[in-house]
Design a protein that fits this description.
This protein is mainly α and 81 residues long. The chain has one domain. 78% of the residues lie in helices and 0% in strands. It is built from three helices and no strands. Helix 1 packs antiparallel against helix 2. The chain is flat and about 50 Å long. The model has no long low-confidence stretch (mean pLDDT 92).
Length: 81
């Protein structure tokens, strides 16, 4: 099995199990889900190093979303309402 196929299967299962686990813990914030998906994507990418034909647009989108979430959370800590 190629590393590309294996990385896609592992990412699929990680994403598939993340939603019910977070839901069963009572998590309702969308930023928690996006953060977990981002971490899973980059861990799978680091471990399997799948080959990409085109630039990694998904990584750029997830990293941007994760950065915005972290920035927002830091602002909430520094300047509470």
């Amino acid at each position: 099995m190629s590393r590309n196929t294996l990385s896609n299967i592992v990412l699929c299962f990680l994403t598939l199990f993340t939603v019910p686990i977070l839901w069963s813990l009572g998590e309702v914030r969308i930023d928690a889900y996006i953060s977990m998906f981002t971490l899973e994507y980059f861990i799978v990418k680091a471990v399997f190093n799948p080959r990409r034909i085109v630039g990694d647009v998904i990584a750029l989108i997830l990293l941007t979303a994760f950065s915005v979430i972290v920035f927002y959370r830091v602002l909430q800590v520094l300047y509470p309402l």
